[in-house]
Design goal:
Strand order of the largest sheet of chain A: 1-4
CATH topology of chain A: ABC transporter involved in vitamin B12 uptake, BtuC
Number of domains of chain A: 1
Oligomer: heterodimer
Order of helices and strands of chain B: HHHEEEEEEEEEEEHHHHEEHHHHHHH
Low-confidence stretches of chain B: 1-47
Helix content of chain B: 40-55%
Number of helices of chain B: 14
Radius of gyration of chain A: 20 Å
Strand order of the largest sheet of chain B: 5-4-7-9
Mean pLDDT of chain A: 85
CATH class of the domain at 159-445 in chain B: Mainly Alpha
Low-confidence stretches of chain A: none
């Protein structure tokens, strides 16, 4: 076993742009789930809509900046469409609708019916050239310390990604400390009491869903730009579940929770991955028993189990305060 | 039609019979087929770019490679290369480099009776090939529609297909609704109970390590496995959580985690390929009142009706059933009138597991067994449960049949790949118009 390379692979993945995108998406989910108590189980759909909004706009000849705006607005619109019929009802209904909507939207995007716009299963590629034109680092130059080396291209995406993480964290902090945020937390704690204070609970929930959705849209755009590629099958329900584990792990309803959760989760996920790959290569019987495909699926089983175990034994996560996450029947 | 059954399995298949019900039935299959083709590992990382694929015609549960079809690859009007599909349906055309190509399937070279399912898709105008990529493209092929079908026959066949789908949904949905009734939990892992039943039946029926019983026998242990799983779940997970006073929302998140873990476990154990039960795999359609249908559809509907009627009698007449309704109505009141609530909840979970397993087995019988089949059905189950009214057993039954028929009928207007979207649309409309459902009471929705 080559422990050093396991660690290096894990750290490289943890500081990479994917982690930044997951952290951003988790910030959005945290606003919905952690602060407003909304059970949005179709979070990946917001990322898909954001990414496709951008890719399609550029594909039709628009500039990238316009595409990004379109993507963010489209994600907010999706929040509106899903929220309007469900947010007046019990929490279960939002969960049911969103979990279904996420899969339906993915199937719609990949259907031949939508192919003229989305290019079906093949997706849309190469729409973010103007983003990489702004890259101040020579794209193929290597940067780093010791074994931790990234290319200039990746460094540029990382810089933008983690800057966004910081800005959005500050934005959420500002929002939550504002009267708007206090009402949101009040709704989570006791909806009836908030109604009796004359607050329009429905409007607050809808706003939280839409703002959280647009933040997820930004995450989707970042991922799509980084890969210069959108395909429908990159937006599987598993991403939503991973994001839930991230939010609960870090601490739902805390400012830094989603970021800490994303970093810890990605480190564990990729270290386990590197461990399994290493074990396959170096330990004979493991290699016989464990195919690479099975290794990937085992990680997903662990995600599901992790979600259960966290929710049962430590619903407040790493940073959270137990009193704040007594999410109950609402 | 005995003459047709004699010809089955030979290359000279009769392609002339009506295919409407079949087309509706196998819409899910298309998704699966396309997914498989897309996920087929790329050909060995040969240097240089190419475009290729496998021409497969999907009939019933068989995949037939289509041989001798010409495919032309062009770029901006210049011909790049011509490929012909081999005996295994595979074709490949090398292309000079990265870029966008047009790929055209020469429909005149298709064998008789094989046609593109979407006639407009004979040319893919923008196939992008990346660096070093062996790009795979798909031309979905189906049976040619050579006989014209009257509207009556078409609607009739869709009605039968819809009732069959409805029967499967209703069987699966009743348990979800009963569990919600007695515990208040929306159990997302219910989908995996459906899958478990189908996989268990496959194990007892067709697995090389299983006993290989006939399917009608294998259903029994499959339902027992499902019921046992419901029992174990309640004893080892949900009851301890209730005793810890875990909130319902937290329990719902736990059920979603459980669903996700189980689904991927099934993928590891069962693999990603859809598999059909060998029994009844290629049943010949029969005609009733001029409508073409497959006997297993009728059996599915009949068995479901009998079982659901049995559930109804159980709820109305038996002590446990009455107690179940009492707990659903008001658990505290039921407890104080001497009902052992935990025991009733345990019975409900066991019943729900068994019914879901039965629904899953019939789902697998009519379509195919796959690791995520329950998850695919979950949306329709939810639509049925919400339409009928969350927590009402009879509502879930009625909702199941209504949703099944509505979804199948929608293919008259919408392409069948949008079936899932129709299901979601239905769900949203119900929530907007009558969120408590047909039989639900207003206070349940909060």
């Amino acid at each position: 076993m080559d422990w050093a390379s396991v660690l290096v692979d894990g750290i490289l993945a943890t500081i990479g742009p994917i982690t930044a995108a997951y952290a951003i998406s988790a910030i959005g989910l945290n606003l919905q789930f952690g602060y407003a108590g909304l059970l949005n189980f179709g979070h990946v759909a917001f990322m898909l809509v954001g990414a496709y909004g951008t890719a399609i706009t550029v594909d039709l000849g628009g500039p990238l900046w316009l595409g990004i705006i379109v993507g963010i607005l489209a994600a907010a619109l999706l929040g509106l469409l899903l929220g309007l019929p469900t947010l007046r009802l019990r929490a279960d209904y939002l969960a049911i609708t969103t979990i279904a909507a996420a899969e339906v939207i993915r199937l719609l995007v990949r259907s031949s019916w939508a192919q003229p716009l989305t290019n079906g299963v093949f997706g849309i590629q190469g729409f973010a050239d103007s983003f990489f034109d702004l890259n101040p680092f020579p794209p193929s130059q290597l940067y780093g310390i010791g074994s931790l080396i990234v290319t200039g291209r990746k460094l540029w995406v990382m810089l933008v990604g983690w800057t966004l993480v910081m800005l959005l964290t500050l934005l959420i902090r500002r929002l939550i400390k504002s009267p708007w945020g206090r009402v949101l937390k009040a709704i989570r704690e006791d909806e009836d009491a908030t109604i009796s204070l004359g607050k329009n609970v429905f409007a607050y929930k809808l706003q939280a869903l839409m703002i959280g959705g647009s933040i997820a849209g930004i995450a989707g755009i970042l991922l799509a730009v980084e890969q210069q590629n959108v395909t429908p099958d990159a937006y599987l329900p598993k991403i939503t579940f991973i994001l839930y584990v991230i939010v609960i792990l870090g601490g739902a309803g805390t400012i830094l929770g989603p970021v800490v959760g994303a970093v810890v989760f990605q480190f564990l996920f990729f270290t386990i991955d590197a461990l399994m790959v290493n074990a396959q290569a170096n330990i004979g019987w493991v290699g016989d028993l464990l195919t690479p495909a099975a290794a990937g699926q085992i990680k997903l089983v662990l995600v599901g189990v992790g979600m259960m175990v966290l929710m049962i034994f430590r619903p407040q996560g790493v940073l959270g305060n137990r009193e704040e996450v007594l999410i109950d029947e609402r | 039609m005995p003459t047709q059954s004699a010809e089955r399995g030979h290359s000279a298949r009769p392609y002339t019979r009506s295919i409407v019900s079949r087309r509706a039935r196998f819409a899910w299959f298309w998704l699966a087929a396309i997914t498989i083709v897309v996920m087929t590992p790329l050909a060995s990382s040969a240097a240089g770019e190419s475009i290729g694929g496998t021409l497969i015609q999907r009939l019933d549960d068989e995949k037939l490679p289509v041989e001798g079809v010409t495919i032309t690859v062009t770029q901006d009007g210049n011909e790049i290369g011509v490929g012909e599909s081999g005996a295994n349906g595979k074709w490949e055309v090398a292309v000079p480099g990265v870029g966008s190509y047009q790929v055209r399937l020469e429909t005149s070279t298709l064998p008789e009776g094989v046609e593109l399912t979407d006639p407009d898709k004979e040319e893919l105008s923008d196939v992008k090939v990346r660096d070093g990529q062996a790009k795979k493209v798909i031309f979905p092929l189906g049976e040619g529609i050579t006989s014209t079908v009257s509207t009556y026959q078409r609607v009739g066949a869709l009605l039968v297909a819809g009732l069959k789908l409805g029967a499967i949904i209703a069987l699966s949905a009743v348990g979800l609704s009963l569990v919600f009734g007695v515990t208040g939990l929306v159990n997302f892992a219910h989908a995996e109970m459906v899958t478990l039943g189908a996989i268990a039946a496959y194990f007892f029926h067709a697995s090389s390590v299983g006993p290989q019983w006939p399917l009608v026998v294998a259903i029994v242990p499959a339902v027992l496995v499902g019921a046992g799983f419901g029992w174990i779940q309640e004893r080892s997970l949900w009851r301890p959580l209730r005793n810890r006073h875990t909130g319902l929302v937290a329990m719902m998140v736990v059920s979603i985690g459980l669903s996700f873990a189980l689904r991927n476990l099934f993928l590891i154990i069962f693999g990603g390929e859809p598999r059909a039960y060998p029994d009844f795999a290629g049943q010949q359609p029969i005609e009733v009142l001029g409508i073409s249908m497959v006997p297993k559809q009728l059996i599915t509907i009949a068995v479901a009706l009998v079982v659901l009627a049995g559930v109804g009698i159980f709820l109305q007449k038996s002590r446990a059933g009455t107690a179940m309704r009492a707990v659903a109505d008001d658990a505290d009141l039921a407890e104080s009138s001497g009902i052992n609530v935990n025991r009733i909840i345990l019975i409900t979970w066991t019943l729900a597991g068994g019914l879901a397993a039965l629904g899953g087995t019939f789902f697998g019988l009519n379509e195919a067994v796959q690791w995520d089949m329950g998850f695919k059905l979950l949306l329709l189950i939810f639509a049925a449960v919400v339409l009928g009214g969350l927590g009402t057993a009879y509502g879930a039954m009625a909702g199941g049949f209504i949703v099944g028929v509505a979804v199948e009928m929608s293919t008259l207007i919408f392409p069948s790949e949008l079936k899932a979207a129709v299901g979601l649309g239905l769900l949203i409309v119900i929530l907007l118009v009558k969120p408590q459902g047909l039989l639900g009471s207003k206070e349940r929705i909060g």
